């Protein structure tokens, strides 16, 4: 899960399933900068929009959220 998919764009067929850093941050009750750090650390993979913004796959975020609530 540590490989980002920077070469992909949000125009792929999963576009409806992509979340912004702010949306992910709200789900985890953290700052969006924390989500960016997770992506840089390889905890979350991401895609880049044509404008260069990160987007996260909803299914992966939900899995991470589920794992984090089971650990806590």
Automatic annotation (TrEMBL):
GO terms for molecular function: DNA binding. Residues 18-66 form the Helix-turn-helix domain. Coiled coil: none annotated. SUPFAM superfamilies: Putative DNA-binding domain. Transmembrane segments: none annotated. InterPro entries: BldC-like, DNA-bd_dom_put_sf, HTH_17, SinI_DNA-bd. This is Helix-turn-helix domain-containing protein. It comes from Brachybacterium saurashtrense.
């Amino acid at each position: 899960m540590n490989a980002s998919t920077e070469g992909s764009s949000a125009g792929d067929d999963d576009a409806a399933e992509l979340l912004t850093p702010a949306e992910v941050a709200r789900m985890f009750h953290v700052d969006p900068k924390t989500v960016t750090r997770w992506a840089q650390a390889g905890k979350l993979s991401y895609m880049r929009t044509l404008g260069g913004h990160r987007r996260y796959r909803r299914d992966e975020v939900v899995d991470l959220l589920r794992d984090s609530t089971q650990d806590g």
